[in-house]
Specification:
The protein has 169 residues and is mostly beta strands. A hairpin with a 5-residue loop joins strand 8 and strand 9.
Length: 169
Amino acid sequence: MKRLAARRVLPDLSRQTSDHKGLARRLQVVAGILLDPDHRVLITERPDGGPFPGMWEFPGGKIKAGELPPSALIRELSEELGITARKVESFMCLDHNYADLAVRLHFFKVTEWYGEALGIEGQKLRWLMPAQIEKRLMLPADVPVIDALANGDQKRDVVAGLDGTAADT
């Protein structure tokens, strides 16, 4: 009998996958927590015409097929804000279930970049201290990140449900 060598297969984080809870799909997303020297974070307003218009979020977007999360973040920040991220550090990964969509969000702290952040796609930008961010105006999936930043947490992984509540994992 021929023996096969074991090999480790890493998950493709860029694919949408079925969710065991019956949700239509799981979307892989990256988001950047841009921190300025005064420890303020950048949030952006979602445009009209898409999901959650007028709500605020951390900038980022979908991970493309074959793309690693840090590379996706660098691409998204360039497309949305016109900056080139230089220093990117993994901060938090969380799963969030909306009514019709499950997302896995990979959050990264970005502390160095080239250029000035601009709303390239016409979105409004705001620099705020984490404690100043009105959570009710943010996407529900971003709320655990705001809480972690306001509490001075360095890193953690959480799973959030439909109601936005979080449980540490």
